[in-house]
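Standup, Tuesday
Yesterday: got the pipeline producing structure tokens again.
Today: sanity-check two examples.
Blockers: none.

Example 1:
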Amino acid sequence: MDPEDEYNSPFNFEEEINNSYLYLSLKENFTPPSSPAMPYRGTQGQDSIPEVGEDAVATVGQTGPIPALSEEEKEELHNELVKVEEEIQTLSQVLASKEKQVAEIKRKLGITPLNELKQNLSKGWQEVTTSTAYKRTSETLSQAGQKASAAFSSVGSAITRKLEDVR
């Protein structure tokens, strides 16, 4: 039995296609009529940089039909492609090596992830406490605390006097 004979599609392509379920268009940047989706704009902005691990090929948009290339041009592009792929592989290996080197140096220095976290928190807290906004807020809260303390003291004194008068 032929494998194609075994599979029966749930769709009947002989009948009309349900437009609310499926919309096919030859135009790349076309959104179906009455579609709630935003028009397709591509995966990246023109000036954006691909994220780590993102396939750079997905970020390159076609500007038109693929030009016809001679065999010589195809060979030249193929060689360039191989060269760039090799460079990418080399850079990946160098990066991995450098990351291992950093980890080894940190281990020798006794820098653990916990120590790094503590240092980062200390540095961050120091930056916060030396900021102008923190200083102003601290001064304002200090003044408010002094005023509140004075107010409670005077209220306490007034209550004490009233209790003494009651006796």
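Example 2:
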Amino acid sequence: MSETIELPFQLDTQLTEVMRLRVQSLQQRSQKRQEGERLLRGNEAVYRLDFSKQSLRFSHWTVRLAQPGQLTITATSQLWTPDLTNLMTRQLLEPAGVFWRAPEDASDAPIQCYEADAAEFGERIAELAKVRKVMYFLFAFAEGCSPETVDCSIIFKGDK
């Protein structure tokens, strides 16, 4: 018997702020980033998923965009320890999840996505959940999308 488990993505305001301060510090000192370092862009924020169970099977995404726009979700690997190291580009996982709503879409129309990539991405997250209690993601907001207009979670099946 399996149960449905919905895990909401949570904005990590503290980690987002730390990463923004890193960008600001480099700019103020006219320094360059480390080779391979991935700096947080102005339209990005760090989100996290906390796994209550480790044995999960991906089911589907629940993404709501209150207005037209695009959301790109990129996962980070288990090798990134945000309290110890800067984020490096090699620690970003592929594929990313890309979700959008076009201006001409009705407000009740389903959110569009690259379905194969979104499914592979969800399955990869379920695999990583076996060895992690928390996982970090970069959310990139574009074309009118913002943290205030997005509600996102991932649905898994788990054993009771």
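Quick observation on example 2: The mean pLDDT is 92. Residues 13-28 form the longest helix (16 residues).
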